[in-house]
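Batch manifest, entry 17 of 40.
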Amino acid sequence: MKSIKVSIFIVVIFSLQMVSCKKKVKDPFTSDYQNMMRQNALIEAAFDDVLKISENIMMKNGDARLATTGAPLGCISDIDTVVTGPNKKTYTINFLLGCSDYDGKERAGKIIIEMDGASYNTAGAVLTFRFENYYINYSNLQGKMIMTNEGNGVYKVVVSDESGSGYATLNIVDIGISQWKSTHKRTITNGYGDNIILDNKYHIENYDPGINTFDGFTTDDKHYYANPSSILILDYSCTASGSLRYPTYGILKYKLEENPRDVDYGDSTLCDYTVLMTDGISTTTFSLY
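Output type: structure tokens
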């Protein structure tokens, strides 16, 4: 009888070990990566939103109320345009407080754009974006973005703090402060020059092999960086919940803390926000929603 109990005990222990081993098959960093990728997309989307609004204003010579281009229709109180020199202008976009716009977003504060060039889409033009008490959906965005037009729809984009070396920040309401900086090459491949922002598709590539394309800290202070293995394709028409825009094509090589992963966004044929993440041994599939 004693030997039977011992045998049963051994079987139970073995079964528990097997269950424990099965649990280890799931990548233990999946939730950390999901959180990090969402925060990376949130702050990237905030700067992308600034770019969308600003491009529209500069294309339409200050009239930002044309629905076809996707700019806010009613929540800009005024736009101040000051000529500061030959081919130099400063635009200050003032938003109405507590105004929900056509896209469901609430913006407040000011976006200030310094343009050095005949127009924003002229090769050689340099645009510097700054913020004054600027909020989007109650989240405070701080930092600086410099966009240099290199011609034929190609731009160098640098996002940082005001000093140019530190991190821009997005104080995400009810979550905390996410830090982010980026240096990348942005190439518009569809819709360039047609004055309609929402049909744009663009590639993102690493600009300088010595500088990470994306570099940041999550709200729980976990450091990450990411570089595309080739190109990333983003499509304005492919937008997830919360106006987040994830790539539809390409592989990003992430490193969260000391845990590297490759994330495959797909082949650009689907807008499903499903990715494959691998550590080189096992692969995990999950949704970015």
